[in-house]
Specification:
Radius of gyration: 18 Å
CATH class of the largest domain: Alpha Beta
Structural class: alpha+beta
Oligomer: single chain
Shape: globular
CATH topology of the largest domain: BirA Bifunctional Protein, domain 2
Mean pLDDT: 92
CATH superfamily of the largest domain: Bira Bifunctional Protein, Domain 2
Largest sheet: 7 strands, mixed
Strand content: 35-45%
Number of helices: 5
CATH architecture of the largest domain: 2-Layer Sandwich
Length: 246
């Protein structure tokens, strides 16, 4: 694995996308920055990073072969690696959940985000960039980010950025290179289901331009959220079809 570190950049995902165009090695590349000025999230949202306090990095994987039917395994695998690691460094003192499709929650507030961008052939995904941002030691957030929190704000502990980066990239490399998962998939998927934020609770969503109160039931193996509405019954909705108001 090739490791690159820089103090400041606009977006580590963008940097690795440019790197992939200019370099044809199949070796995994991990890029860590100590200050990301224009981090990206889903739906074009901005990811706030505090200089020297946030863990912000991306990984480029080339020469992979993940069939389209198993693409959701990437999201499940990355989410569970991140949750397991965060639980480990906080010694089980903080409750972590996955907020579908790509956020990690700590005590009901967002502490980490995942952005996965892929390239494919007719056979499936053959190149991927995984971007991760974790609020480790942040002490403040913009006023509009009412649901953001850092591990330090919860525990009052300080967490090492570079050590965390070194551990996570090894674990992510291991699980991505093992995909598509077979023997371990059922157990991992069940752990993911159990970790879902607001599972078996009422949430407010916008589905087909209609505001609904639904019960979150789980996620299916294609990555669609399963919710139950009183009159419509069970709904399986993709990220493009459903917006969660939280």
């Amino acid at each position: 694995m090739k490791i690159i570190k820089c103090h400041t950049t606009s977006s580590t995902n963008d940097d690795l996308r440019e790197y992939a165009l200019e370099n044809h090695s199949d070796k995994t590349v991990a890029l860590l920055t100590f200050y990301q000025k224009n981090g990206k999230g889903q739906r074009g949202r901005f990811w706030h990073a505090q200089e020297g306090s946030s863990l912000t990095f991306s990984m480029l994987f080339k020469d992979i072969e993940i069939p389209f039917a198993q693409i959701f395994q990437i999201h499940v695998g990355v989410s569970m690696v991140l949750i397991d690691f965060l639980s480990e460094i906080t010694q089980g003192q903080i409750n972590f959940n996955v907020k579908w499709p790509n956020d990690i929650m700590a005590e009901n507030k967002k502490c980490a985000g995942i952005l996965i961008e892929t390239k494919s052939t007719e056979r499936g995904v053959n190149e991927m960039i995984i971007g991760i941002g974790v609020n480790l030691n942040n002490t403040e957030f913009p006023s509009q980010l009412v649901h953001a929190v850092s591990l330090k704000q919860i525990s009052a502990e300080h967490y090492p950025i570079e050590k965390s980066f070194n551990i996570l990239i090894q674990r992510l490399e291991q699980i991505v290179r093992a995909m598509p998962l077979r023997e371990t998939w059922n157990r991992l998927f069940e752990n993911y289901q159990q970790s879902l934020f607001k599972r078996k609770q009422q949430i407010e969503v916008i589905y087909k331009d209609e505001l609904l109160m639904v019960e979150l039931e789980g996620v299916d193996e294609s990555g669609r959220l399963i919710v139950k509405e009183k009159e419509l019954g069970l709904i399986h909705a993709s990220f493009e079809e459903l917006k969660w108001n939280y």
